[in-house]
Design goal:
single chain; 342 residues; six-stranded antiparallel beta barrel; alpha+beta; 12 strands; six-stranded antiparallel β-barrel; Thrombin, subunit H
Length: 342
């Protein structure tokens, strides 16, 4: 028996506990042996995993869904910011492209003006159109060149296609150009094909000139090119002015008239070329009025009568004139072969 106050007491309870311990140890050894041979624990673990996996996925689903939504929102905001930045870049690039295209057009126009100045072989000054007169009855533009650039009133002005007008008023830093289409403008011209000289008047329309006081039998056809005649020393001879659009011969009137389409288009040009005058300062308006009066008198004298056949009143070609001058010599009597004169 145990002494009184001893820590360990031997009795029926101790034997029971010892037997249970031995049983559990033996059971553990048996299970370990079976698991080592049959892998039952792994199979049981796999079966338990099949049962618990859906529960784990269901528990994790709210967190994963929230994480995906947050990531999607962040990506959406990032994409919106990138799209906004790309739109701004596109707007800047488009603006730069427009400026580049405008610079290319200006460069091409300036190159054409330089080529035109070289073809004319006359001193010239390039100018930019600053303002257009809004008065529908006054066709004038203001350029950014003036007296400080050596410009004087009356100088001809051209663009890349042809003559557009001449300087009307010259200021220190600018000048006003009167266009060919202005109703107050008149220009001595000649027809390139026939050499006929006449005067072209402004019609008040943006793309039309007028030829008046033409003889009814004038040799003029649509499509003929009209050039400057060079009379008066204001405009160099041979500058392209216009193309004949139509010719009218009204019945019962004394003169024919024609409509011209100007080759120069100041309404489509931004830069113009101011040419030097050919000779000293002359009053171009007075000369134009004198030429106009002289042409009127000459045409009235050459106007055929109504009784003559229009075919007989056709202009005589230079070869025909030479033959007419040679006819008197051919009509002289030929000498007698015998040497005696009749």
């Amino acid at each position: 028996m145990n002494a009184p106050g001893s820590r360990f007491e031997f009795g029926p309870d101790l034997a029971g506990r010892t037997s249970r311990l031995m049983f559990y140890v033996l059971l553990a050894i048996i299970l370990m042996s079976l698991d080592f041979r049959e892998r039952w624990v792994d199979q049981a673990r796999a079966s338990a995993g099949l049962v618990t996996e859906p529960l784990m996925l269901l528990i994790e689903w709210p967190y994963q869904t929230g994480a995906r939504l947050g990531e999607g929102l962040r990506a959406h905001r990032q994409l919106l910011a990138e799209a906004r930045a790309l739109r701004l870049d596109l707007a800047r690039v488009s603006a730069d492209l427009l400026v580049l295209e405008e610079l290319q057009r200006e460069n091409a126009e300036l190159r054409e003006l330089v080529d035109a100045g070289q073809r004319v072989d006359i001193g010239s000054v390039a100018a930019e159109i600053r303002r257009v007169d809004l008065n529908p009855f006054s066709h004038r533009v203001l350029i950014n060149r003036g007296r400080r650039d050596g410009l004087v009133s009356g100088q001809p002005v051209v663009d890349t296609r042809g003559l557009v007008g001449q300087l009307d008023e010259v200021f220190l830093h600018s000048a006003r150009v009167i266009l060919l289409t202005d109703p107050d403008h008149a220009l001595p011209v000649r027809i390139e094909r026939t050499g006929l000289r006449t005067i072209a008047y402004g019609s008040g329309l943006n793309a039309q000139l007028r030829l008046t006081d033409l003889p009814m039998n004038v040799d003029l056809e649509p499509g003929d090119i009209v050039l400057t005649s060079g009379l008066g020393g204001v405009f160099p001879a041979g500058l392209p002015v216009a193309r004949v659009g139509s010719v009218e011969r009204p019945v019962g009137e004394a003169f024919a008239r024609a409509e011209l389409r100007p080759l120069g288009r100041p309404d489509r040009s931004r830069y113009l070329l101011v040419l030097d005058r050919v000779s000293g300062p002359e009053d171009a308006q007075e000369l134009t009025e004198e030429l106009q009066e002289a042409l009127r008198e000459e045409l009235l004298e050459e106007q055929p009568s109504t009784d003559e056949d229009p075919a007989d009143s056709a202009p005589t070609e230079p070869d025909e004139l030479d033959e007419e001058f040679d006819e008197p010599a051919a009509a002289a009597p030929a000498p007698d072969p015998s040497g005696q004169q009749s």
